[in-house]
Specification:
single chain; 323 residues; mainly alpha; Rhopdopsin 7-helix transmembrane proteins; 3-stranded mixed β-sheet; 3 strands; 74% helix; globular; Olfactory receptor; sensory transduction; membrane; G protein-coupled receptor activity; receptor
Length: 323
């Protein structure tokens, strides 16, 4: 098979060449051409759905005057982040499946790790900010404008993006300063830190392990904060006299919490479980839940089911194509 032969020719030990000349091989889901085609087709569908949904939200929240509120300011940031987040891993994976070229350079891998960790951390921070925004709006409505003002929104977003950059730099510095040894095969469809650490001597990964524990601890704190926010929100919702009002609010908040839980728990499990040198199907499918699913579902759950967003879409369509 030409595909397997080409892959084998690219395999080497990372001691064979200068470390910055190393090419990692992203092993993906299978060597089978048929499975590679299915993988590329599914990932392309996910990517197009995320691309269209998030860009539509960015456009609507930027152009429609009725959506110039803190909630939609946060949504616009989340949509821009999700667009970038899924673009870091999925297009490369699709191209690798279709071209049979699974190699990625040392610097390309380092850049992918940086942007992935940067955007993933920023997403956790923004989701925490958004849960706080909803908590204030529902539980402290009379103080909402005083607490969530324009200055506070800009500061919270600046801190969220800055935290991502710092986290990305910490991970790249800690991981790529280590001497890689053994095989150059990464059993994942992108450069993910747990799989990269399996190529490093387990006796010298304590620095990156410390960074992973620190970041995971912060993610857990954010998750607890989000959970507490929604607990307070639900305690207010149950006191709403209208059954329609309860149903509407629950149908909005519960999907938010499900996606947040899926994203944070799957990512935390992947990054704190023991490092393995062997291929694991569960690791591959687990990574899909924190790389592909959230950016695809967020536009649907956070915005496209929203009455105001639908009205804004109709207004923009009417402006572009007058009746």
């Amino acid at each position: 098979d030409k595909y397997i032969g080409k892959r084998r020719r690219n395999e080497m030990t990372t001691n064979d060449v200068n470390r910055t000349d190393v090419e990692f091989l992203l092993m993906g889901f299978s060597d089978s051409w048929e499975i590679q085609i299915v993988h590329a087709a599914l990932f392309l569908l996910f990517y197009l759905a995320a691309l269209i949904g998030n860009l539509l939200i960015i456009m609507l929240t930027a152009l429609d005057v009725h959506l110039q509120t803190p909630m939609y300011f946060f949504l616009r940031n989340l949509s821009f982040l999700d667009f970038c987040y899924i673009s870091v891993t999925v297009p490369k994976s699709i191209a690798s499946s279709l071209t049979h070229d699974t190699s990625i350079s040392f610097f390309g891998c380092a850049l992918q790790v940086f942007f992935f960790m940067d955007l993933a951390t920023t997403e956790v921070a923004i989701l925490t900010v958004m849960s706080y925004d909803r908590y204030v709006a529902i539980c402290r409505p009379l103080r909402y404008e005083a607490i969530i003002n324009q200055g506070a929104c800009v500061k919270m977003m600046a801190v969220s993006w800055l935290s991502g950059v710092i986290c990305g730099l910490m991970h790249v510095t800690a991981t790529f300063s280590l001497p890689f040894c053994g095989s150059n095969k990464v059993h994942q469809f992108f450069c993910d830190i747990p799989q990269l650490l399996s190529l490093v001597d387990s006796k010298i990964i304590f620095i990156e392990t410390g960074v992973m524990v620190l970041v995971t601890s912060l993610v857990i704190i954010c998750f607890v904060s989000i959970t507490l926010s929604y607990m307070y929100i639900f305690s207010v919702i149950v006191r709403i006299p209208s059954k329609e009002g309860k149903s509407k609010t629950f149908s909005t908040c519960i999907p938010h919490l499900v996606v947040v839980t899926l994203f944070m728990i799957s990512g935390s499990i992947a990054y704190v479980k023991p490092i393995s040198n062997s291929f694991s199907v569960s690791d591959l499918f687990l990574s899909v839940f924190y790389t592909v699913v959230p950016p695809t579902l967020n536009p649907i759950i956070y915005s496209l089911r929203n009455k105001d967003m639908k009205a804004a879409l109709k207004r923009q369509c009417a402006w572009v194509v007058p009746l």
